[in-house]
Amino acid sequence: MKVVYGLATSLIAMAAAAAFALGQTPQKTGKMTSREDAAATIAVMDHVWLNAAHNNDAGTAAWLFADDFVEIHPGGDIVDRAQQIDEIKDPSRKFAEIHPDDINVRYVAPDVAMLLDTTTIRGPQGGVNYGGKYKVIRVFIRDQGRWRAVGAGIAPIQP
Amino acid sequence: MKRFQLAGLFAVLMCAPHVFAQSKPVSDAATVEQLKKFDHDWLDAEKRLDIAYCEKYFADAYVLVFPNGQTYTKKEWLGILKGPDHPTITFLNPEDIQVHLHGNIAILTDHTTLKGHDSKGNSMDGVFNVFRVVTKQDGVWKATGVVMNAIAEKK
């Protein structure tokens, strides 16, 4: 029963986050969103990103990642957009857990943003067996009225 | 018939600027070179403990993430560099710098070799793949974020 309740709660949270994020509307030229609004949206995008990774949801990843996306994994591997989407949709791996905490949107300008979070990841992906907490910088740009991810750098938090 | 051909040509010409204007990240060669130089200047400044440079060219939002996940803000990191427990860096060089330019933000990935030791004499030698974020603020590019990853040996 607990599992069903937890699953339902997760689904509702994900649906709410996705609806909020997908509903981003194009801004008229010259109209700037407030820093607070942008920071809140960016924080939601962080959840959308990791939900996509958790659910092997390549469609959402493709929607979110900009063309020139780049990510550096623990161990130093550098992957581009196509490689990262391939890793997300790979059915042979399934994260038991992946979610962000302590989301700290450190920089917001009208069209760019950078956040730092603590991401908990458990499970395999792209040759890396994740098992713990990671410090992650994530970068976003506002492209044609919506926020898109352009990159991430991930380092493991060693005890 | 000629009228249709002209209309077709006109339509193609009208579409062309739109197609070319679609922005994939701007490939501005001069800015890319400027940012590669900035990567070198930034690391040279840290190596020689040039606090004035770092104060000027590090954004207030700057955050540094070491390979062990330890995190420092601008104030914390510059406090270390100018304090008695600063590291001694004898070699710090970024290579294979790749610039991903997106208007007023850019991600640089590079392969950085570090030689030196901390204030207690512990070696800091290593080779890292580094994720750097730089932002353009009031016309000036500033270091805004860094994640360092020690390169794992391939099995």
Relevant terms:
heterodimer; A: 159 residues; alpha+beta; Nuclear Transport Factor 2, Chain: A; 6-stranded mixed β-sheet; 4 helices; globular; disordered N terminus; B: 155 residues; 6 strands; 35% helix
Strand content of chain B: 35-45%
The ordered H/E elements of chain B are HHHEEHEEEE
Indicate the multimeric state: heterodimer
Indicate the mean pLDDT of chain B. 87
Number of domains of chain B: 1
Q: Identify the most extensive interface between protein chains.
A: A-B, 35 and 36 residues
Order of helices and strands of chain A: HHHEEHEEEE
Total number of strands of chain A: 6
Q: Alpha-carbon distance between the termini of chain A?
A: 35 Å
| Rg over alpha carbons of chain B | 22 Å
Task: Indicate how many domains the architecture of chain A comprises.
Answer: 1
CATH architecture of chain B: Roll
How many DSSP helices of chain B?
4
CATH topology call of chain B? Nuclear Transport Factor 2, Chain: A
CATH class of chain B: Alpha Beta
Task: Describe what you observe in this structure.
The complex is a heterodimer of chains A (159) and B (155). Chain A has four helices and six strands; from the N terminus they run αααββαββββ. With 159 residues, chain A is α+β, with helices and mostly antiparallel strands. In chain A, strands 2-1-6-5-4-3 form a six-stranded mixed sheet. Chain B is an alpha+beta fold and 155 residues long. Chain B has one domain (28-150): Nuclear Transport Factor 2, Chain: A. In chain B, 35% of the residues lie in helices and 40% in strands. Chain B has helices at residues 2-21, 29-47, 51-57, 74-82; strands spanning 58-65, 71-73, 88-102, 105-117, 126-137, 140-150. Chain B has a six-stranded mixed sheet with strand order 2-1-6-5-4-3. The longest helix of chain B has 20 residues, at 2-21. Chain B is globular, with a radius of gyration of 22 Å. The chains are: A alpha+beta (159), B alpha+beta (155). The A-B interface holds A 66-68, 70, 72-78, 106-107, 109, 111-112, 114, 116, 133-137, 139, 141, 143, 150-158 and B 23-25, 59, 61, 63, 65-69, 71, 98, 100, 102-105, 107, 109, 128-131, 133, 135, 137, 144-152.
